[in-house]
């Protein structure tokens, strides 16, 4: 599971952008070539991608489920605010 967050501050609003994704064990093993591909394809800094891959950790099924529920709750909260 790849998971990163970026703090966001805009005027009087503070928040965080959270990204989650699943990578295969093969992608983790081939991280150098995968980083090269992503860097070239999406024009993203190699150093940022390398740092992300250093942070990859294996999550338990319960942790993954809790992360999904948290993301669903955030989306529902934001949607309710707009209504």
Description:
This protein is of the alpha+beta class and 83 residues long. The protein has one domain (2-82). The chain has four helices and two strands, in the order E-E-H-H-H-H. The protein has a two-stranded antiparallel ribbon with strand order 1-2. A hairpin with a 2-residue loop joins strand 1 (2-10) and strand 2. The radius of gyration is 16 Å and the shape is globular. It starts with a strand and ends with a helix. The model has no long low-confidence stretch (mean pLDDT 78).
Q: What's the structural blueprint in terms of helices and strands?
A:
Layout: E1 2-10, E2 13-21, H1 25-29, H2 31-42, H3 46-55, H4 61-82
Antiparallel strand pairs: 1-2
